[in-house]
Amino acid sequence: MTDILERAEPVEASAPAKPKRIALIASKGTLDQAYPPLILATTAASLGWEAGIFFTFYGLDILHQDRFEKLKVASLANPAGPIQLPNILGALPGATAAATAMMKKWMNTANMPSVPEFIEMTQGLGVRFFACSTTMGVMGVEEGDLIKGAEIAGAAAFLDYAAEADIQLFI
Amino acid sequence: MTTQYDIPTNDLSVDAELDTSGLLCPLPVYKASIALGQLSKGQVLHLITTDPGSLEDIPALARQLGDTLLGVERLEDRQLFWIEKGDRP
Predict the structure, then answer these.
(1) Which of A49, A169, B7, B68 could form a disulfide with B84 if both were Cys (CB 3.0 to 4.6 A apart)?
(2) In this complex, do B86 and A14 lie within 8 Å of one another by their Cβ atoms?
(3) What is the pLDDT along chain B (89 residues), one digit of tens a residue?
(4) CA-to-CA distance for A141 and B59, rounded, in angstroms?
(5) Nearest chain A residue (CA) to B64
(6) Which ipTM did the prediction report?
């Protein structure tokens, strides 16, 4: 009986030998949708977890060195967007630029880092960036177009990484 | 997941201070994690936040890192935390 009780005592709390892991898919290339995967990856890495993001389809723009500073958010067909306009006005030239400027102003006022700043933060924390090879082929993106540190990967390589993850999210 | 707030914070010694006033998630967690990384085991970080989410976020950070939340103080406009760095692999 004593034996059992002794064995049942809780093990002293300590960090697990194998870190937790989060595997994210970033599939959208708008300014607003670039933030959630970057915020989650930053947080996960800050918690001591491994974190990796698979950038696919429009999400690949977040890794594109000529495009990641120019992500936009539209007013058209976006009822929750930064500028509330009827769709017929949201389709006018300049509406997307205005909504994008408004969102950047929000972020700046709230002391939130820009997308390029988040990329730098996450890379500093060791977050892995996987660039979808199929998307690269479909959209004509070359390895040299991507930001430094991006790893080219296909679905199988990402799933292999994600299979070892505790959390997998598609954004 | 319930966190006990207002843990008594008398007589806590501090080895580093970090003020994240005006910053929103994930920045308090990000900066606190880096600050804790620079400490040695047993040293204490005094952290100030204004993001109301940090009342749950900072205890979660301590849990995940294996550090110990020694104290929490909730003031009207900010929160104070004392975190002791634990044994890291």
Answers:
(1) B68
(2) yes
(3) 445 555 666 667 899 999 999 999 999 999 999 999 999 999 999 999 999 999 999 999 999 999 999 999 999 999 999 999 998 76
(4) 42
(5) A47
(6) 0.89
A126 and A108 in one domain?
Answer: no
Mean pLDDT value across residues A7-35: 80
| Domain housing A157 | 20-69+117-171
CB contact under 8 A, A46 and B29: yes
Structurally, chain A folds into a number of domains equal to: 2
Pairing mode, strands A128-132 and B44-49: unpaired
* A71-94 pLDDT per residue, tens: 999 989 888 888 888 898 888 999
Q: Domain containing A39 — which CATH number?
A: 3.40.1260.10
Asked if residue A13 belongs to a domain, the reply is: no
Same domain, A109 and A121: no
* Separation CA A102–CA B68 (nearest Å): 41
- Cβ neighbours for A56, distance < 8 A, ≥ 6 positions apart: A25, A26, A27, A132, A134, A135
For tokens 């595997």, the residue is: A23
Q: Tell me: do A42 and A125 sit in the same domain.
A: yes
Active-site annotation of B, residues: 25
